[in-house]
Automatic annotation (TrEMBL):
Protein name per its UniProtKB record: AMP-binding protein
Protein keywords: ATP-binding, Ligase, Nucleotide-binding
SUPFAM superfamilies: Acetyl-CoA synthetase-like, Winged helix' DNA-binding domain
Keyword Lyase tagged: no
Classification via InterPro entries: AMP-dep_synth/lig_dom, ANL_N_sf, Mitochondrial_ACSM, Tscrpt_reg_IclR_N, WH-like_DNA-bd_sf, WH_DNA-bd_sf
Ranges where the HTH iclR-type domain occurs: 19-82
Biological source species: Azospirillum himalayense
PROSITE patterns in the record: HTH_ICLR
Family that this chain belongs to: Belongs to the ATP-dependent AMP-binding enzyme family.
Pfam family, one: HTH_IclR
Length: 554
């Protein structure tokens, strides 16, 4: 079977393959540079950029043709080419401080971390227009593009364009401002998947606030804890879900019209009526890169749920994962089945698509295999990501027959290590590459393992794979020393060598924060145990926390 990202394009080598091809070529150049004078093997570059062999080789060939890359004929290692030297001299002459000679410019040393193309200026600094990054710029470029496709349980589809999302969120921002919401305020959003959720989130970000999703199946006690702990300034919910809000609540409540029969609503602000009566808020608040724009809480099962703040600088890691970890391409139809009330759904099902100007797909109700098949075929989904529980349900409902006439190109699973039988089933029946991925609420996804249908001889062991570019992952022994190959220990992120790492502290528990950094701020500890093999793969051996459970329900 031909791999989906193999050399099957009709575009001539060297011709422009679009924005994504350019970004991948730049990532390869940075990866070659990171290996310094020694040069890089093809296997090194594949690991550094998470590209397949076919894609990496195709891009390297094109770069070599233009003399941006050289390959040593004896060692077969790749080096930066002479064209980069000449272009660099031209650039240096323009940007060199006045009076500084060419000989004064120090030669750059080898990079100490894996490269990433997504540490953009857009995500850095003190004045980041978040609502523009996540919505308004897409509305200006192509306002008719769907920001959301919402599918009801009955199979009815409604669409929300980026232009409409921009207008409605500007109006709803005025509603929230009238309720006293301002910069840094946390707003609890207890809503099912739908247009109101996107509108509420964007409105909060227009005000410089913090979006705090509450999972709709939370108990009333879980909701009450999070409202009190976060000091939420306001609540957006429905009449049915309002029954989970404490009776003594004194915060302003905005309630989506339509199901008032399920609860009292006389004192609530009506969502749509208030929105349409308000003039759009003309200005957009600015964030600093370390400012929080979302607040996620850990599982309801935790004795004391922890608050994890998502800073604006995390957008770089979100884009890295969307483009490289999920291999999301410009022509993909992307569906993240995770609920946006959980970290994985919020990071990569809500924020990620908005950041890239892609369409979010929401489907009402709990997961149902038949409904899942309908969604996959109706929308022609090519890039699917889901929880292991959904794969198990899929397998149990139709273990060998499998789905038919699907457009799937790639399937990603996150939540826990997949057992070999499910990996084998997916490769055999779905017949697309399966990406098994590892991460935490505190970090986002930072490791990935790829299983390809064309490599059935590869054993589906408990390897978590390798880190994504932008992260350096190590195994620490009990004394906090990096373990050698084969040595068991705790999975940790080398913070100093991981430019995409963003977690700083829990919002509500300094003690638990200290435990994450108990060997000093150099290493973030996941609480999971593993060992490193000679090929750089990390093998999971036990869970000491809920580290890889980024979502528990669908």
């Amino acid at each position: 079977m031909t791999r989906p990202d193999s050399d099957t394009e009709t575009t001539p080598a060297g011709a422009s393959g679009g924005t994504q091809s350019l970004e991948r070529a730049l990532a390869l150049l940075r990866a070659v540079a990171s290996h310094g004078a020694e040069g890089a093997r093809l296997a090194d570059l594949m690991s550094d950029t998470a590209l397949s062999k076919a894609t990496a080789h195709r891009l390297l060939t094109a770069l070599a043709r233009e003399r941006f890359i050289d390959q040593d004929p004896r060692s077969r290692r790749y080096h930066l080419g002479p064209e980069l030297d000449s272009l660099g001299r031209i650039a240096a002459a323009r940007h060199r401080p006045e009076g500084e000679g060419e000989s004064d410019v120090a030669a750059p040393g080898p990079a100490t971390v894996q490269p990433t193309a997504f540490l953009r200026p857009d995500y850095q600094g003190e004045a980041i227009p978040l609502a523009d990054l996540l919505c308004d710029r897409h509305a200006r470029a192509d306002g008719a593009r769907a920001a959301l496709l919402h599918e009801s349980v009955a199979g009815q589809t409604t669409e929300l364009s980026f232009a409409r999302l921009s207008r409605d969120s500007a109006r709803f921002a005025a509603v929230l401002r009238g309720l006293g919401v301002g910069r840094g305020d946390r707003v609890a959003v207890l809503l099912p998947k739908g247009a109101e959720l996107l509108i509420a989130a964007l409105a909060i970000w227009r005000l410089g606030g913090v979006y705090m999703p509450l999972f709709t199946t939370y108990s009333a006690a879980a909701v009450a804890y999070r409202l009190a702990d976060s000091e939420a300034r306001a609540i957006v919910t429905t009449g049915f879900l309002r029954r989970k809000i404490p009776r003594d609540n004194s915060r302003p409540v905005v309630m989506v019209e339509g199901d008032e029969a399920f609860g009292p609503g006389a004192d609530a602000v009506p969502f749509w009526s208030a929105l349409h009566e308000s003039a759009p808020l003309p200005d957009i608040a600015r964030y600093a890169d370390r400012d929080a724009f979302a607040l996620m809480y850990t599982s309801e099962a935790e004795p004391k749920p922890l608050g994890v703040s998502l800073p604006v600088m995390a957008l770089a890691g979100i884009e890295q994962y969307m483009r490289i970890g999920l291999d999301l391409r410009d022509d993909d139809i992307y569906w993240n089945m995770a609920d946006p009330g959980w970290a994985y759904g919020a990071y990569y099902g809500l924020v990620g698509p908005l950041l890239l100007g892609r369409t979010t797909i929401f489907c009402d109700g709990p997961y149902d295999v038949r409904q899942g098949y309908r969604m996959l075929t109706k929308f022609g989904v090519t890039n699917l990501t889901c929880a292991p529980s959904q794969i198990r349900a899929w397998h149990s409902a139709d273990p060998e027959g499998g789905p038919h006439k699907l457009a799937l190109r790639i399937l990603s699973v996150v939540g826990e290590p997949l057992p070999p039988e499910l990996i084998g089933w997916a490769n055999r029946v779905v017949s697309v590459p399966l990406l098994d991925q590892y991460g935490q609420r505190e970090t986002g996804i930072f490791m990935m393992n790829r299983y390809d249908p064309g490599h059935a001889d590869r054993t589906a062991d408990s390897s978590l794979g390798r880190p994504l570019p932008g992260f350096r992952v190590v195994i620490l022994d009990p004394q906090g020393r990096e373990a050698p190959v084969g040595g068991a220990g705790e999975i940790a992120i080398d913070v100093e060598s991981s430019p995409l790492f963003w977690f700083d502290a829990y919002a509500n528990d300094p003690g638990r924060t200290a435990a994450r950094f108990r060997h000093g701020r150099r290493y973030y500890l996941t609480g999971d145990w593993a060992f490193l093999d000679g090929d750089g793969n990390i093998h999971f051996r036990g869970r000491a926390s809920d580290a890889i459970v980024m979502q528990q329900a669908d």
